[in-house]
UniProtKB/TrEMBL annotation, chain A:
GO MF: ATP binding
Cleavable signal peptide: none
Transmembrane segments: none
Gene3D superfamilies listed in its UniProt record: P-loop containing nucleotide triphosphate hydrolases
Name recorded for this polypeptide: ABC transporter ATP-binding protein
Residue ranges constituting the ABC transporter domain according to the UniProt record: 7-232
PANTHER family hit by this protein: ABC TRANSPORTER ATP-BINDING PROTEIN ALBC-RELATED
Domain of life: Bacteria
Pfam families (UniProt xref): ABC_tran (PF00005)
Keywords from the named record: ATP-binding, Nucleotide-binding, Transport
Automatic annotation (TrEMBL), chain B:
Organism whose genome encodes this protein: Streptomyces musisoli
Protein name in UniProt: ABC transporter
Keywords of this entry: Membrane, Transmembrane, Transmembrane helix
TM region(s), chain numbering: 23-40, 122-142, 162-180, 185-203, 223-243
Superkingdom: Bacteria
Length: 293, 248
């Protein structure tokens, strides 16, 4: 059943230091191959830790993570990763950085794609990395990751310091890659709007746990925004994620188990509403929609 | 079905490019020190032998003995500079800035990365230190008559043979371990350098107890070399253990 999973976590946990807190705990999810997945959550939720574990940069404290059907270490040549702070060697030029990518990724380096990403920003290949702006460095880091032509691309806050034009262009490049080669892309962000158009899968991380996971369409379909009289009742059969009373009126985000009584007005929630409701209410039960796979 | 072995990532060009300034600095140091030694042998020492017969004035630092004393001390502490460099520039800074992680997410495993780094650094360090040890030994042996030094003084004992390259290797390993354990450039520099200074200061305590069973320079020098190499091997194993524990 796991043969087509690009990324799978089983009771995954990571603690920093022997007495430190858990950055991630009891995470289980499965991401089918070929998806573009958004990892969303507040600052310090464990998004970066999750991506670093998948990239094989740190070892899990407990549980396991499976990448492309094998261990993160064995999957290394087939996985691309861009860390949040976009580390690059400041003393190298852009051309030297790309040559390093070619040297360190024998047999699957795509120089044309890497150069296309770099020249798209009008960057001079002879410019040194230390002379670049934050957004320009992001472009070079992405070129290095895309040029590897990975089967799984892990991007930690990839678009944070890009201008809207560059963001649009690079997102287009990434999506074209995904479409052409069936690349699975996992990207984290805390800006939901950034991901809504391009992602079809969601991992919501909060407090070191997975709060929601599944296809975005199915997650949205599983929830309803309901409005009605505060004393109407009839919501007992549904799981209430969040509810708010203003005057005599009650507004709630619920997961209905069956049809609701007719006196509730219902509407479909937006992705942002869904995510915010879950983040505001850590006590709401997690939901893992696995039916898509 | 036999598949072709996948091509190994070629790390050499990148590493040479990244550590080019260090390689140039080390080459310059080796050439300078070797040049000084040859100057002592071919210019200063013969001149002082003539002076012994006639009268002439010379200053402390320009004299053969002064230069040899200075060079001996410099060579004794060279491993500390190597440790500082290895801790800070070779390993610590890369972990601190995340560039090590950048390399580990190419097709290069962390173990392969560390091995490549240590080998690329060890080759020029061993070559340079061996050349210096050979030249120092031959100059010291040939010009003993104008040098005020005894073979068991540290500044003569250390640079006269394989003990010098062994200490340089220890500096490299100590730097790597400190860099990997502390993951920051400045603390790694300080700790690795301190470890080397401690070894330098207490080196005599390692081989001095052997003075009964072993006599003369060569046996004691080789025994001290062996002990430093054992220490180096232990530190290297520890460095790999730290790396394996930290990464998947």
């Amino acid at each position: 059943m796991s043969s087509d999973a690009a990324l799978r976590a089983d009771a995954l946990g990571k603690r920093f230091g022997r007495r430190g807190g858990w950055a991630l705990r009891d995470c289980s999810f499965r991401l089918p191959a070929g998806r573009v997945c958004a990892v969303v959550g507040p600052n310090g939720a464990g998004k970066s830790t999750l991506l670093a574990l998948a990239a094989g940069l740190t070892a899990p404290t407990e549980g396991s993570v499976t990448v492309l059907g094998t261990t993160p270490a064995a999957a290394r040549p087939r996985v691309g990763f861009v860390a949040q702070d976009k580390p690059l060697y400041p003393q190298l030029t852009i051309a030297e950085t790309l040559r390093m990518g070619a040297d360190l990724n024998p047999e699957h380096w795509d120089a044309a794609v890497a150069e296309q990403v770099v020249t798209g920003g009008g960057l001079d290949p002879k410019a040194r990395i230390r002379s670049l702006s934050g957004g320009q460095r992001t472009r070079v880091a992405l070129a290095l990751a895309v040029g590897k032509r990975p089967e799984l691309l892990l991007l930690d806050e990839p678009m944070a310091d890009l201008d809207p034009l560059a963001r649009h262009e690079l997102m287009g490049t990434l999506m074209a890659q995904a479409a052409q080669y069936g690349t699975t892309i996992v990207m984290s962000s805390h800006v939901v709007a950034e991901l809504e158009d391009s992602c079809d899968h969601l991992l919501l991380v909060g407090g070191g746990r997975i709060r929601l996971s599944g296809e975005i369409d199915e997650l949205l379909a599983a929830h309803l925004r309901v409005t009605g009289a505060a004393d109407a009742g009839g919501l007992d059969a549904a799981t209430v994620v969040e509810s708010r009373v203003t005057g005599r009126q009650l507004t709630a985000l619920v997961r209905p188990a069956g049809p609701l009584p007719g006196d509730w007005r219902t509407s479909a929630p937006s992705l942002e509403e869904l995510i915010l409701a879950h983040l505001r209410n850590p006590g709401a039960p997690a939901l893992h929609e696995e039916s898509a796979a | 079905m036999t598949a072709l072995a996948p091509a190994r990532p070629a790390t050499r060009r990148t590493l040479l490019r990244l550590h080019r300034p260090a390689l140039l600095a080390w080459t310059a140091f080796v050439l300078l020190a070797a040049g000084e030694l040859l100057w002592v042998h071919y210019s200063a020492a013969p001149q002082e032998r003539t002076c012994a017969r006639h009268w002439c004035a010379y200053t402390t630092f320009a004299g053969a003995d002064g230069v040899m004393r200075l060079l001996g001390e410099a060579l004794c502490y060279a491993p500390c500079a190597v440790a500082a460099w290895a801790g800070a520039a070779l390993i610590g800074r890369e972990l601190e800035s995340g560039t090590a992680q950048l390399v580990w997410t190419q097709a290069v495993t962390p173990v392969h990365w560390l091995t490549a780094k240590l080998t690329m650094a060890a080759l020029p360090l061993l070559t340079g230190a061996s050349v210096l040890a050979l030249v120092f030994d031959s100059v010291w042996s040939a010009d003993q008559d104008v040098l005020a030094a005894h073979w068991d003084w540290d500044r003569v004992f250390v640079p006269r043979g394989p003990l010098l390259p062994a200490l340089v290797l220890f500096g490299l390993a100590a730097g790597a371990l400190a860099g990997l354990a502390l993951r920051r450039a400045l603390p790694a520099l300080a700790v690795a350098c301190a470890a080397c200074v401690v070894l330098r200061l207490y080196l005599r305590d390692l081989w001095e107890p052997l003075r009964g069973p072993l006599t003369g320079f060569r046996p004691l020098h080789l025994a001290a070399t062996g002990m430093v190499l054992v220490l180096t091997a232990g530190v290297t194993v520890a460095a790999y253990a730290v790396l394996r524990r930290r990464t998947a």
